[in-house]
Amino acid sequence: MSEQTERNGVRVGVAAYVLWGLLTVYWKQLSALDAVELIGWRMFTAAIVMAVVTTARGTWPAIVAAFRSRSTVVRLIVAALLLSANWGSYVWAVINDRVIETALGYFIAPLGTMAIGALVLGERANRAQKVAFGCVAIAVVILTVGAGQPPWISIVLAATWSSYALSKRNMPLGAIDSLTGETFVLVLPAAMALIVLAGRSSSAVNTASATDWVLLLGTGLITAIPLMLFASAAKSIPFMLLGPLNLIVPVINFGLGWVLYNEPMPLNRLIGFAFVWLALLVVMTDRIRSHQRAARPQPPVNDEPATDTTGAGLIT
Predict the structure, then answer these.
(1) What global pTM score does this model have?
(2) How far apart are CA 308 and CA 175, in angstroms?
(3) Which of 11, 181, 197, 267 could form a disulfide with 76 if both were Cys (CB 3.0 to 4.6 A apart)?
(4) C-beta of residue 16 within 8 angstroms of C-beta of residue 247
């Protein structure tokens, strides 16, 4: 991979994450509408956009083959349900002035993914990861005591996103085709929900302005564009570099919630965030050191057997 390709990949990756972070501002413009209805419109329009994208990419055979496989369909349904839960929690939080909680959720999400690796996939957590898990546990306790209840939105966002990542494991589709399949699974329930909700006096059909309709119909595009940018970046830069870029999203949300939307930042919340940031710092430092160790040239192998100083025998 050339240096120029990597630089372009970083630019594309940053663009994807910045767009994802700024979606908070987009959804804020629709805060007068019901969160469930907003998710319905996002699912429905995203399916239309992804159908267009699939046609342009010529990958309909892969989608059709996926829906002929029972195991793949089950995987798509599980992924779609987790994705809709994540989207729903996020949009509900944004329109209910809880943007900072979404930031906390997406700060915790990478650590949640590591926890799934240890608890579900049987991967061994190293010392740095154990320290990170402890820091997150302390953060949750502090935030729970300070608010009188656990940070449920943050926990749900982190849990659904980490579980969504697990559901994509061994998915026989690429990132874009997988999202296409997931939106196709959701499009019929979304359409039915929109029809039912349209009868309410507060529905978008009865209350949305022309601007609201433009934003509603654009939710499919704002879903697809960052994902396609991300998919391009993932092919161009190492994951050791792509991973830290993921933190752009919660950093933007944290700044928007605190500075732009004036959400409260009491001392207990700031201390809780500090423990989460400490956890991420520990993990990132450990990753960088591991990468540097792996990149060092290895000394030549000596053909002579080495002596085992424990006296148990020879190292071969």
Answers:
(1) 0.83
(2) 49
(3) 181
(4) no
